[in-house]
Amino acid sequence: MSWLQKPIFVTGATGFIGGRVCERLVQAGAKDVRALVHTVQHASRIARLPITLVPGSLLDRASVREAMGDAKIVIHCGLAPARGILSTTENALKAAADAGVERFVHMSTAAVHGLTPAPGSETEAAALPRTGDHYCDNKGRAERIVHSFHRRGLPTVILRPSIVYGPFSAWSIRLVRELRDGKVTLIDRGNGACNTGYVDNLVDAVFLAIEKDQAVGETFYITDGERITWGDFIRAHVPMVKNAPPLQEISKAEVADYYRRQPGLIWGSIQQGGRLLRSRELRFLLRRIPAMGRIETAVWGWMQAQPEQRRERIRARFATPETVEPENNGNFSMPEEVTLATQTGTVFFSIDKAKRVLGYQPRIPFTRGIGLVEQWLRFANHL
To answer: Under the phi-then-psi rule, with left for phi > 0, alpha for psi from -120 to 50, and beta for the rest, what region is 186?
Structure first.
């Protein structure tokens, strides 16, 4: 009996990857697809498909079990904030174990090795590090939970994509908007490893993970297998944007030095808090509170009773600043710290294991994938 004839349960079905999984399942002829939907308003993309939309929350184990029904295959693409990654993963695994699921495909991420993976993490044999990033570390811990359920008898497969792009991807939607606004800066000429993966290549790997018995208990990096840099990825979007300003460039050292010179958490909070308290906008909002009008009148009266020299000192200390020192000079856009970490890695992940064990062969090369993205961006009025 083909796996496409069995009941299939998809979490994260309203998201970018999960939505495409649902579409491809229908295209492949799947007869019984159940999609977990947390927020109905986000389900417009998959609501048109001949699948069953089931309400539930990955944070509620009982609702996950009920939504899963008699599924024999689970494709777990569900997203969660960093603090919820472990509980949602465990809830999905427990429900799958109770349901007697025959294959559980867990969508992890190459970020288990951090936003800037260290040399030596090119293959799945590399031990998972403690990165210090809450999201990355919890995704690594979630993989350990998956392995623990596999040891107890649940047939699991872990996939680790990296930068997944394609129609509906936030990577391209955000990038074309920032290109239009002149807010894209190449770090070290864009030479950092991007590790792109076109979404349909990833879905191919999901299907192979279900079909191949030798995949059970294994972990696989899934990318396009091309050495695409961030410069390649960004520059491929530039021609899509009419009259896009020239790309800005900066070195990794300059960005790192900029953030080293910024105030720390406590002092930075004090500074920004002081600016907020002195702002006209806050005072305008406070005046809407009836009691604040009386307080302001009393303070004003107290101020008028003070000697002029003292009033000047108070004004100098608490007056609203006319200008706030800009974070960036002119039109230059300083990359965020996460962007710095993400775009300066040197590791290109190997898909040799996926090719060998799954028979995975990326069908859509980068040049074609970018063309398909442009077609969709124009169709969706992002260009």
So the answer is: beta
